[in-house]
Recover the amino acids of this structure.
């Protein structure tokens, strides 16, 4: 381990990563560089700087990555209608590759030979950080203190803090019992009271959304404008990707939208209970499907649907930075050129109701779909031939005595 | 056409199929057998018998198929978590193969050489009826009057009725402007006011569900008991498949659950707007995923997710009676043996909130998932090796200069 | 039919399309434009001009499309390792979209309102021509005489020729009994003696390849140079795509390589026996897999393998000109950037034996693969963790009593 | 390690596993049980017993597993037409789960608490053994000496042998330089001269097959009889699965059939060169596709083709004993009920030429496929409607200005 001279640490400013910073200094006798990102988690980052300085850290990076996160990670993912195991919006998963990328950039910039993170050895995040780091910088060394040290209980951590003068904020009565992660796309909760899959979370766990019960009694209508599969304006007001997400988080959360409560399958092999609030994400998935419904070709749409579970799995498992994710992204992005237009939504007490979709490039043709005179575009008699030929193989088999019942 | 002597007609008792019955008698000079099915659409069927008798029809079949429909068609489909294009619960699609099967059985029983149906030449139902019929009886002849006759406007139909003494019920002010279909799984609406994808449906279109606004202010909690992937009891009361669906339709509809409003891609090639109420279906999909989340192996679950779009497409397109659907069903059913346990749900104003899942065969292991002492089941250090080997190909590529950015 | 004034006919110069030219003139009273393409089928095309002129046709297009065919159709397809039903190299399928495209271009150029082709109503080619034409020119009219006329026997055709002074070449003893199609990629045989799937084709059916028995007793070695997935040189001699194919057809055919004898499933629903000679194709598929084996990432390669059957099916069924084929092509092409290097092959009596592959961008790393000191790139102890975590879900299930036996 | 009292060792009788036996005795102070399987590798197993006895081993299991291997592992795999990365017949992969199963059975029988194997830490076999063992016996302990000890060079091994009186057979000039594995399905070669992917293997490496050059100048014809997808007779002589394989290995190997020379992607992350002889496997894959070509429904066949790469990957990676492999197997087996009939093959100097296939359950219908009068089974005019409806979405898109070129 003596070959490590400088370590870039993904540093939140919280207790755990503060302990890690100190532990790395001691254990590796290495210079520490901290990296703290604003991904829209809604926390002040300047305290992190203060704390890092207090530990004698010289190189402190605090970056506002909100636009990059929304534009280059979240938005491409939503083009795919990605959802993991039918329920999870990948809020944590999609943030990790950006952090990994930035850790590597900073390592390159500062001449560090290692990175470190505060993810435990039982979760997915260690995998996501490290796969990304290795893919972008194959000789980087990775330090995951939770897999190495013996500070494996709250008591030992506290003792370590006391011993090393690491300040422990004693937010009386305020400390959440849950393990949480937040960014523009979501906030997550794990552990403690919700470890039992039969237990309903208490209402005060949820921090970002009103409950459907507490949401306004009047619905909110919004209109989203899409360009090439991405939202570019809300209610005709042009917005950047991060602005879109901030706006939607606010309005959807206010209307009781965005809660997920699941048991999911981790890449490292176990099932885990997780609760999530993803207000903007809920709206974006629903609306994107709606704009695609009128602008996307049927068979391209179905192929996207077949590819999606794999794509979501790749992101969940930490393979954003991989040839196979890029390959799927190329296919997905190829379909979005004409995904332009508007979707009108009604938000009401947890419901997202699509009440209109329109596009200059709509493939919906009222005349063909209905009984109106369609000027010869569709001859009903063609259907007989269509059916006859599609049935041919089935009829031949039936004539040969094959049974389907 | 002179080779057709007897025709089994899928007969609803409504105006269209009454006209068809008469038209077939005249056009084909053939004996007509009517078949009317109770699939849970919630209509009296005896009037259909009366009307058929009035047209001189001798062989009249009126069958209660609700249990068979729920047990052998709807339930197997929900084992797959099937949903078409991310939104449609396949309510009409899944009923057609049962009707096709029964038409063929009756044709065999009565010595008929043809079947007829009232589906138009622009829709999916013609395909579903006919593929099913051909697959089960390859020499059957199929008559689709809407593709043949020239009664292609409301006026011509009315004139035909008048000419042939077919009674037209004049439900003043009550006639819905929509084209509708209903069974235990759903009721659907097409045409008229909702042909424009930008137009929000009027509230009085919806017949089965309360709006979220009008739903009760107090939530309803229910517990579903699963056995091998199927619901066998609600709130500990054992129920048959059809009873399950009737119960869930009632309680979910009451709570504002089950509305879908989409533009979908028909198998015959065009996009079409459709609105649907599927109260039980909404609950069943959500709850099935929840019970699977604790009882199904991860990789089996992911494989199911990858197969699902194809499976749903097959059902939508009319290939229930096909080798490929049976093949997928075999894979799906193979996974359901241990999908046993209970799901607890909170229903509230359009929301279905999973608040608990439990199973004697749960694969969720609290000790492994969390920081508790897991008695050696999981060694965090293993994660390092897991990541290293998964990263190997990415690192080798990066060392060779491959770029992912 | 009176609205058709000018028809572009895909004209081979053979008997069938000559009859069609005459029949179209008579039946549609329309001007005929002939289009004859050199796709490498190895026939003189000037006689086609003569014949067309003799029928009074004014606009005669004879195009050498060999390079476009090889470069824009065959080569992209081989990047996907496409093969239909495990055996068929898609030789006819891949030529049809180019002909469809050119028919439409000529129709646009000459102001024609229809196209016509000589494919029958039982085959795949009608579908391929027409889907392509409709996709590229949605208002085009398509005439498929074989589906319309009553010249449905050899006798009637001959009578028509006599009546209309269409010269019938009487190549005594030379007329093949098979229905054939040829281009740079293959020559195909259908019908007659090989209709019975139990019958072995007679040796003299095969026109392009020597039999393995008759091939030289000495092997031929060749080296193929790949750039971005395409062959750009053979034995270090730079060649255009069409030159590559011509060269490989010659050398592979000489060595007894390229014969396929199968029963395949047509898109129109029936099974059909087909025999094919695809000498260059056999070599290209084998060699492309070999160069990919050292240059392509594992998971990208596996994803390609999973996509391939669908991609091949799309081409077989006539959907080259479709959003979904473009979508898959985008994914496939995305992977080929580094598919560069050389493959060395030994060709001998029907065998294609890969005897070497090398690449500056090879991902093969001898040190990591073997027992050599790998300078820490691979720590065997990592494998234990890798296995443990991959086994975790299986162990948890086994502990819960799940049985796999 | 003191908790291990008895270890079942997969024991070949060769040098490496003899060293392991001794090392385990010393290192773990545990009782050793040896298990040696006859999988058709063509070696005497009694010497293994002698050697084990010489080391003081009391419980020695020597099992003839040839029929079980062929019937329950190889045959089911060939029903899927499984092939890894387009080239590898999975000869080693498919043997490992049987060995894992038997190791666990013996551990249960003898009260052992651990198993051990001689696979290295860089290969796939360790994964296959261990995933199988854990899946079937979740609390078993696994010892992989190659990952643990420091005998990581030939010299150290030899020194260990000398020190512990382990006899080293000095087959002068006979010792192959390759790492090899053999069973009924194949023999494999890795390492040494073929580590360089550009190097052609020397002819004397291949032990099971004649070279095409050296194969007879006269072809051999054979007829395979299939029942439910499995070969049950050759040339009308009924044979057991293992007999089928032995017979085919002989006749195909004699005719120069079965050599594979590839670079493959290991599950543990690196690329590796491997050479294989799989004479029976080559024939079985080709013939199975041929019998399926006339007996299997088109869409079931295509779905099988799409599933195959995943199925092959699962077996390659060691997941035979997994819910997802069982799920795919259920789908595959579901299709084989009617895969009955005969395939006639010509074997000649490396070529397997299908020259006939026939079945009482053939779906091939000569009348429908050809120009013969098909008695109304197929109306060519239906094709127009079939094409028109399949083209509809493409035409609508083109009318809206979408470009495919």
């Amino acid at each position: 381990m003596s070959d490590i001279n400088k370590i870039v640490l993904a540093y939140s400013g919280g207790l755990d990563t503060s302990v890690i910073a100190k532990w790395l200094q001691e254990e590796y006798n290495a210079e520490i560089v901290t990296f703290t990102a604003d991904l829209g988690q809604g926390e002040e980052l300047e305290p992190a700087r203060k704390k890092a300085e207090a530990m004698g850290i010289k190189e402190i990076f605090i970056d506002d990555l909100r636009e990059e996160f929304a534009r280059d990670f979240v938005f491409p993912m939503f083009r795919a209608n990605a959802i993991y195991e039918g329920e999870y919006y990948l809020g944590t998963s999609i943030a990790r590759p950006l952090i990994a990328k930035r850790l590597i950039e900073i390592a390159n910039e500062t001449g560090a030979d290692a990175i470190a993170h505060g993810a435990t050895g039982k979760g997915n995040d260690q995998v996501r950080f490290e796969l990304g780091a290795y893919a972008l910088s194959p000789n980087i060394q990775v330090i995951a203190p939770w897999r190495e040290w013996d500070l494996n209980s709250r008591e030992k951590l506290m003792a370590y803090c006391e011993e090393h003068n690491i300040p422990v904020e004693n937010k009386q009565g305020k400390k959440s019992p849950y393990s949480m992660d937040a960014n523009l796309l979501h906030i997550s909760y794990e552990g403690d009271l919700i470890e039992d899959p039969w237990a309903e979370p208490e209402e005060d766990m949820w921090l970002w959304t009103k409950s459907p019960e507490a949401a306004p009694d009047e619905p909110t209508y919004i209109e989203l404008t899409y360009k090439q599969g991405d939202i570019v304006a809300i209610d005709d007001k042009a917005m950047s990707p991060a602005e879109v997400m901030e706006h939607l988080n606010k309005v959807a959360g206010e209307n009781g939208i965005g809660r997920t409560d699941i048991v999911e399958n981790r890449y490292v092999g176990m099932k885990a209970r997780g609760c999530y609030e993803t207000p903007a994400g809920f709206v974006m998935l629903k609306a994107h499907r709606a704009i695609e419904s009128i602008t996307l070709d049927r068979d391209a749409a179905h192929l996207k649907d077949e590819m999606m579970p794999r794509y979501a799995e790749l992101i969940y498992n930490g393979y954003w930075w991989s040839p196979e994710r890029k390959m799927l992204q190329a296919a997905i992005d190829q379909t979005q050129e004409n995904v332009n237009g508007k979707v009108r939504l009604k938000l009401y007490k947890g419901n997202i109701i699509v009440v209109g979709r329109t596009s200059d490039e709509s493939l919906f043709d009222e005349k063909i779909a209905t009984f109106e005179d369609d000027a010869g575009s569709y001859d009903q008699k063609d259907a007989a031939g269509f059916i006859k030929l599609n049935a041919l193989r089935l009829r031949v088999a039936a004539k040969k005595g094959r049974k389907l019942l």
Q: What stands out?
A: Chain B has three domains: 6-66+92-175, 180-296+338-358, 366-399.
